Amino acid sequence: MAVTSGVPRTGVETSRVIGRGQTSGGIDDVVNTPVLVGPQRTPTWWWIGISITGALLGLYLISIVRLVTVGVGIFGNNQPVSWAMPIINFVWWIGIGHAGTLISAALLLFRQPWRTSINRFAEAMTIFAVVVAGLYPILHLGRPWVFFWLLPYPNTHGLWPNFRSPLDWDLFAISTYASVSVLFWFIGLIPDLATLRDRATSRFQKLVYGVLALGWNGSGKAWQRYNRAYLLLAALSFPLVLSVHSTIAMDFAVSQVPGWNNTVMPPYFVAGAVFAGFAMVLILAVPLRKAFGLEKLITLRHLDNAAKLMLATGMIVVYGYGVELFYAWYSGVEFEVFMAYNRVLGADHGWAFWLLIACNLVAIQPLWFRSVRQNPLALFVISVLVSIGMWLERYVIIVVSLTKEFLPSSWGNYVPTFWDWALYAGTFGVFGTLFLIFIRLLPSIATTEMKELAHHDAHHGSDPYETIREAYYRGEVPA
Amino acid sequence: MSAASIPAATLHGLIAEYDTPEQVLHAAEAARKAGYTKMDTYTPHPIEGLDDALDLKPTRLGFAVLAIGLIGAATGFGMQWYAGAEFYPLNIGGRPMNPWPNYIVITFEVTVLLSAFTAGLLMLARNGLPRLYHPVFNAPGFERATRDGYYLCVEAVDPRFDPAATHTFLEGTDPVRVEEVAR
What we know:
The structure holds two protein chains of two kinds. In chain A, 68% of the residues lie in helices and 0% in strands. By secondary structure, chain A is mostly helical. Chain B is an alpha+beta fold. Chain B has helices spanning 21-33, 50-53, 61-87, 104-126, 163-171; strands spanning 11-18, 39-42, 150-155, 177-182. At the A-B interface, helix 1, helix 5, helix 7 and helix 15 of A face strand 2, helix 3 and helix 4 of B.
């Protein structure tokens, strides 16, 4: 809180896309000052946060050492549940990442001006989530040090990877997604890095931000190419993000396991990813705007819109649950029917399904009300519940389907071990540490785009129906 | 005005500073109408209409990205076809040796990977980046160009450039100030 202490907080909340009266210089100061202050002025909450995430990061590294020295036997995975926590957590994390790309790419293509203030930290969230997610399948391999066997490279074995396998599609999809996300993020950051270079006070900051800004000077021709490149990257990233989670869904859908072999999987997984991703955006945005005093840039409108998207994608996901059960019945396959029965009413894991319904269906229903959508605390709580719900969804799909497949003689149970949980807790350390370092050293809001938005807002307004909408919000009948 | 403070041999141009995007837009239009061609604006954010005001040709970046994207698609598919159907054919349950639907995902990913990096890196290369030194950074107070300052620089290589006449012209476009920029 040190950065904003003493600043009066009354009347800062607004439901416009950007608070009234924002100037280029003002945006610069509010976003970049906390980034450029010296280490001795780092806020206390940051040190507390990084101590916690640093401890979890330590747990992550210890778990990896344990995994490499002992082997995957430290996990609870065994036949018949050979895919368990590592794959649940992989899908959970990569799903979270998808909202960042959708905000930065899809909303750009759809010309939604409200994306501007949340896209930068959402893209960072994407990258860090993909880092965490991408490590999981590698760690799960058993011999992580030969993961490159999945790549087509000239080798003395004279072998190629099996391109017909969805697991190899996954490798291509995730590595492409990770590299394109980093590129998109960095290209977006260049003008902001140039801003930091010009605001920097110390020689060291000038040098670091100056080199990273690559000598950007904002010339007219440079902006023309830059805008085109950014648009192209957005147009390429949008289908990419859909393909990534569809590919992950095909890891399941292409197999014959009851409950997995289902054509609804790709679209339903994509909707679930966006659902979980917007939940994480809200989990990060609510504290971030308070901590840095960004309420006039990340406004109630952003929270409201993110909540609406969360509600819409959440309802698509719930429809997916219904379709899965319908397919099980309509297929007439006894294994599918049993899977559905076991999932919903089974004595072992029925609790997981009903808890999932409570988190993903019941908990999001208050979002129909504007008063809830514009209440940061309520959104934070609902988003945490949604994150838990989406984790349970993958638990239900992966673990519950595998425990009881075809032959009753092969049925088994699954119990996560200490190291399963330790590695999962550690992933929060990796994500949190990277995110805290990001918000300390780089602007968490795209200042360049915000300046353009502020200028546009000052001259043309951000919303042609603003007066009507505000009267409506106040409960008055619009004129 | 200090017309002779920088010798002509080391003069990059004259730069005018403005407070609003509209002013720099009008100044660029006026300069184009006055016959100047070697000029550029420096602004904190892109400005709509500047391409026309500066008479910039549309960028051809999209065509390069399309071409590389098609090469990526051919490479991605070709690699899988070669591995699966030519180099080491695998008979899996009597299915076709060249099951093209299985190859779509990787073909798509390779296409996107190559096109995205073409878009990003070619944009930087065509903009001459990374290039940490540029004469325009010599302009006094140029730090404003990433904050709230809008600049128009008429370069000395312009055939119509004349230190005194161009200075007078720029003064007439209502700038905050006009300065010489060393090369």
